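Risk register update: the risk of archive-format incompatibility is retired. Evidence:
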Amino acid sequence: MTNSQKSFTAFALLIALGVMSVFGQNGHNFDVSGIDKNASACTDFYQYANGNWLAKNPIPAPSELGVANVLNERTAMRFTKFSMPRRRILSAKAAANRR
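Archived output:
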């Protein structure tokens, strides 16, 4: 087999797989269980489209033990440890310059 024949075979296989993947689908894969049929799509589309999902999956209250809070506290502690000696040096230099 020459290189052009190999390329043509690979291209034909790729096209065949693409056609099979497009036409071989059974459904539209659209989940309608999250739609709130009690809400009007014309007045509040967000509630209509997501109402049931939002009711089933409430957003939790902010937690003090979240990863972001822990990292923020650690960063603040490290910054304070790092900046305090520098502040003392700068304030001592400022006091010396005022004399």
